[in-house]
From TrEMBL:
Domain of life: Eukaryota
Bilayer-spanning residue ranges: 12-34, 40-66, 78-109, 186-206, 250-273
Entry keyword set: Membrane, Transmembrane, Transmembrane helix
Protein name: Uncharacterized protein
Keyword Thylakoid in annotation: no
Length: 322
């Protein structure tokens, strides 16, 4: 729906509702800081205690299942036996760090968002709910997260291990690994991480100013195009939080690209193993960066395509070469 909106009216609505939004934001932030110590203590201490307490049982159970299972071949068992300490240690370290980060985010942002949700249309006693919503729910939610995590580590993990030890069907063959392809997989996997991580990071950082400015522009256009959502109370928190938190979204997008590029680079080893070709693995390392570049261009409405060679061009060159 096209609605003509005068700049003075939008500016006037902005001036009227800006104090209202800032008041809700400060109230929600205050509640978040009050609840944060309890939430981060429960999540970090509770989950860390569960991880440290059950980690020896996880290690012993995993190695016991690896030795006793008949679903894996002998060579694959030896390889997994040697590399299992890495994921087991990473599981412990990332679990502890993740518990702290989850407690930090959950303890602060849940009361903050609940404060804005308290002023939605149809809610009664909005003034009271602005002060009480999100406090007790965050405390109970923190305990629920620890309980669910305990159930996963204690019940679900060993349930999966029990299924892994079941006798396979008589006609099935155990999973085995191609030993001759392992050196190429390791080399290409390491090369994929060394190349894809800096390339993904450079692409994400180069596109971040466009994402920031165009995101702000789109948000402001949405605000004005709806004849000033400040006229409706429910739109105040959403619009204000979106504008304020958009730089944080951009930073999270960059960090997510850096983190995901590690696993994307490691997947080059899988390509080498599946195709039994180092050349395909090297082509994947370059093509996946081009695909990421093209995806970010589409996401922030830049020109289509990428200056890097894509999978199609690499396949065409490979056919010509052969």
């Amino acid at each position: 729906m096209d609605v003509s909106v005068s700049c003075p009216s939008v500016f006037w609505n902005f001036l009227i509702f800006l104090p209202f939004f800032l008041g809700l934001f400060l109230l929600g932030a205050t509640k978040g800081f009050l609840v944060l110590p309890f939430s981060i203590s429960v999540l970090s201490i509770g989950n860390t205690a569960v991880l440290l307490g059950l980690w020896p049982a996880h290690v012993l159970g995993t190695y016991y299942g690896l030795v006793r299972t008949k679903q894996l071949g002998p060579v694959l068992k030896v390889v997994l036996f040697l590399v299992l300490p890495v994921p087991l240690i990473l599981f412990l370290a990332l679990g502890v760090a993740g518990s702290i980060l989850v407690g930090l985010g959950y303890g602060f942002f849940t009361p903050l968002v609940a404060t804005f949700e308290a002023v939605r249309e149809g809610r009664e006693d909005k003034f009271i709910h602005c002060f009480v919503d999100g406090v007790w729910d965050t405390i109970k939610g923190s305990c629920t997260v620890v309980r669910d995590f305990t159930d996963f580590c204690y019940h679900s993990y060993f349930s999966y291990l029990k299924d892994f030890l079941k006798e396979p069907p008589p006609e099935s063959q155990p999973y085995e690994i191609k030993v001759l392809d392992l050196p190429g997989c390791v080399v290409v996997g390491i090369l994929g991480v060394l190349l894809d991580v800096p390339l993904f990071t450079c692409v994400a950082i180069a596109k971040s100013p466009f994402m920031l400015l165009r995101g702000w522009r789109r948000l402001l256009q949405d605000l004005i195009g709806r004849e000033g959502p400040f006229l409706e109370t429910v739109c105040v928190p959403v619009a204000g939080l979106a504008v304020l938190c958009w730089p944080l979204v951009v930073v999270i997008a960059i960090l997510s690209a850096m983190l995901s590029s590690i696993f994307i680079g490691l997947y080059a080893a899988v390509v080498v193993y599946q195709e039994s070709s180092i050349q395909y693995g090297l082509a994947y390392i370059i093509a996946v960066v081009a695909q990421f570049d093209e995806y970010t261009n589409d996401l922030i409405y830049l020109r289509e395509g990428s200056c890097l060679p894509s999978q199609a061009s690499l396949s065409q060159k490979d056919r010509i070469y052969n």
